[in-house]
Amino acid sequence: MSCEPQLTKRLGVHQRVTYYLGKLLMKTFTAKPETVKRDWYVVDATGKTLGRLATELARRLRGKHKAEYTPHVDTGDYIIVLNAEKVAVTGNKREDKMYYHHTGHIGGIKEATFEEMIARRPERVIEIAVKGMLPKGPLGRAMYRKLKVYAGNEHNHAAQQPQVLDI
After folding, report:
1. Under CATH, to which class is 35-164 assigned?
2. Where are the transmembrane segments (predicted)?
């Protein structure tokens, strides 16, 4: 039995093929932050169910829809959400769903229903739902910054030439 030396050939940016004992060994691809290609997408939230929309947005912000997904690298795309005030919820959630925040003062817990949140700040409803589905920590915060939510039908990201994403 002769032990042949390991031979390595470079295929792409970060892919290698290794031959050991005459056998082909494939190496796992790992995305690097500087080589990730990010696209811009625009989504219309009119009539979409909040949870189903937020799930798909979080998945695309993380980059799990891509073949080069790597858990420790932000491989996701930029998402623009329009018509946040027209998002739908099922059942009695419009009256029953509560949102809580604290002012920072003693006894400063505040609550608002879904209807009150939609009336006051409709963007926050989608932002809160998506943020809860992203990883906690610096990587999750970087993913969250790629989400742009607008209450109306206008956005100021036309220079990025976003593609329409049908969810």
Report:
1. alpha beta
2. none
